[in-house]
């Protein structure tokens, strides 16, 4: 999976996965976790979400990156060959392997072999049916949801906490009432891809199954969680999913170079623990967690996703625990100009104090909450003005 490498100065670097795995091992998180090596998703599996022409274009780019932007079947680049999505050797193989991991995890959950699974290399939520987008080639998150449906699951809820809108997954299921997609992200007024408005609610019989919570730039832990808790548990309770799929982009952190939401690692951890609770409460404990964005490769992503792995495995880490010296040395060797963190907290080890929504508009976040609840809650039989709903 480390072969998914855009190379050069591209912000999405597989070092983040390597350092996460190393930190999780160093803290004992993986001691009792079953590790399973996936196979690459086949063309037939990929075609459950992507067009055959796009799959062939990715293969062509993978085999000949230098000319990838100019010689695809049917013309056009399918989003490949841009600054965001430059072609690289092995693009198809590594992307299909990541997709295969998420599909394998989803299939194991659907068949009752496991209750929980995690693929930190997954969460590539921007890829569209016919195009790469936002550093994402194959949309493993959408493919995982499709695998659940294909294996008999009747209702799947997908919750995306990446700082960018989960547009590719929403697009894949926008008119499918079996899939609830929830995305909390920085406002489209300020951040790519410019979608994810509260008025995007799904189409036809699926009206109400797309839920978008845009928060203003600069939103920090308490108000982000205010919005999260004012919307997500209510729609999950109403939808009654059989499996919860979650995407955990760590780019919502204050130190991330590509966005402007100001969460801490502690705030991100609080979201993982909330989602674990909701998986138990609303989905019979069946939970698939995926990675996603995150571009502070040393100081943020490894700690955030080590906490994610620990949360999924019920091996919670005290945030006050020190990062292992050997890991800090590895991180320093990889990025000499970045100071590795010495603890698993950003200074709030006791968690996040959530100021629950009371129905009033005190802040810009409250205005966003009000807009989301007005747009979506009536479609689920919920009262948008009652804080108890």
Automatic annotation (TrEMBL):
Pathway: Ketone degradation; acetoin degradation
Keyword Cytoplasm recorded: no
Family named by the database record: Belongs to the histone deacetylase family.
GO molecular function, one term: histone deacetylase activity
Name by which UniProt lists this protein: Acetoin utilization protein AcuC
SUPFAM superfamilies per UniProt: Arginase/deacetylase (SSF52768)
Organism: Nakamurella aerolata
Entries under Pfam families matching the protein: Hist_deacetyl
GO biological process: acetoin catabolic process; epigenetic regulation of gene expression
Keywords on record: Acetoin catabolism
Residues covered by the Histone deacetylase domain: 10-311
């Amino acid at each position: 999976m480390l072969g998914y490498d855009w190379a050069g100065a591209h912000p999405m670097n597989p070092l983040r996965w390597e350092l996460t795995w190393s930190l999780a091992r160093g803290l004992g998180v993986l001691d009792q976790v079953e590790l399973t090596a996936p196979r690459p998703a086949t063309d037939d599996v990929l075609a459950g979400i992507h067009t055959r022409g796009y799959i062939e274009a990715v293969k062509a780019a993978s085999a000949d990156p230098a000319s990838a932007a100019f010689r695809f079947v049917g013309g056009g680049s399918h989003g490949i060959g841009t600054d965001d999505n430059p072609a690289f050797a092995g693009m198809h193989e590594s992307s299909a392997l990541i997709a295969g991991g998420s599909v394998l995890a989803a299939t194991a959950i659907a068949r009752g072999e496991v209750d929980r699974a995690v693929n930190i290399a997954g969460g590539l939520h921007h890829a569209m049916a016919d195009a790469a987008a936002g550093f994402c080639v194959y949309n493993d998150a959408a493919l995982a949801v499709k695998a659940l449906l294909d294996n008999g699951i009747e209702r799947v809820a997908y919750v995306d906490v990446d700082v960018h809108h989960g547009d590719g997954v929403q697009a894949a299921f926008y008119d499918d009432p079996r899939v609830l997609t929830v995305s909390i992200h920085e406002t489209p007024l300020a951040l790519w891809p410019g979608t994810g408005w509260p008025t995007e609610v799904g189409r036809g019989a699926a009206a109400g199954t797309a839920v978008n919570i845009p928060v203003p730039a600069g939103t920090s832990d308490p108000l982000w969680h205010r919005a999260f808790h004012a919307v997500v548990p209510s729609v999950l309770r109403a939808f009654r999913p059989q499996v919860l799929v979650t995407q955990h982009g760590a780019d919502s952190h204050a130190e991330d170079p590509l966005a402007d939401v100001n969460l801490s690692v502690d705030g991100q951890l609080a979201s993982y623990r909330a989602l674990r609770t909701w998986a138990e409460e609303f989905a019979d404990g069946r939970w698939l967690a995926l990675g996603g964005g995150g571009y502070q490769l040393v100081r943020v992503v490894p700690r955030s996703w080590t906490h994610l792995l620990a949360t999924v495995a019920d091996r919670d880490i005290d945030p006050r625990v020190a990062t292992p010296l050997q890991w800090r040395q590895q991180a320093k060797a990889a990025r000499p100009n970045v100071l590795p963190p010495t603890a698993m907290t950003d200074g709030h080890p006791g968690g996040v104090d959530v100021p629950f929504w009371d129905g009033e508009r005190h802040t810009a976040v409250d205005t966003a909450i009000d807009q989301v609840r007005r747009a979506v809650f009536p479609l689920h039989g919920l009262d948008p003005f009652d804080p108890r709903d």
